[in-house]
Amino acid sequence: MFGMEEYEVESYSSLQQAYLDVTVRLRVSLGALNFGQTFIRSCGVAISLVLAAFGAANGRLSPGDFVLINAYIAQLFAPLSVSDLCSELRRSAMLDTSIRV
Fold it and tell me: Is 58 helix (H, G, I), strand (E, B) or coil?
């Protein structure tokens, strides 16, 4: 009746190790994805601001236009940060439910 402790410990340990392995793979893939997205976003912002700076230096844009472009880009990319967080939470939840089933 009470002789299943070793089996339960081994079963729990193997499930815990499987969960750990999948979690590590998930975190590594999400880290790579976030790095790629951040790199692309940063390059786009840098290129846009360099072009706006050249426009301001040539007199086609005022300094206020430069600030406007900077603020517009910041507002444009703000929802992407929130969607990254939602995506990560959704993937973690799906991982948790797939391990339990």
Answer: helix
Task: Give the Cα-Cα-Cα angle 31, 33, 39 (nearest 5 degrees).
Answer: 100
Work out the average pLDDT over 27-50: 88
Task: Tell me what the mean pLDDT of segment 4-16 comes to.
Answer: 86
Total number of domains constituting the chain? 1
Tokens in use for 36? 């790629």
**Degrees, nearest 5: CA angle 24-100-3:** 105
pLDDT at site 60: 92
Domain span at residue 89 reads: 5-100
Record the pTM: 0.63
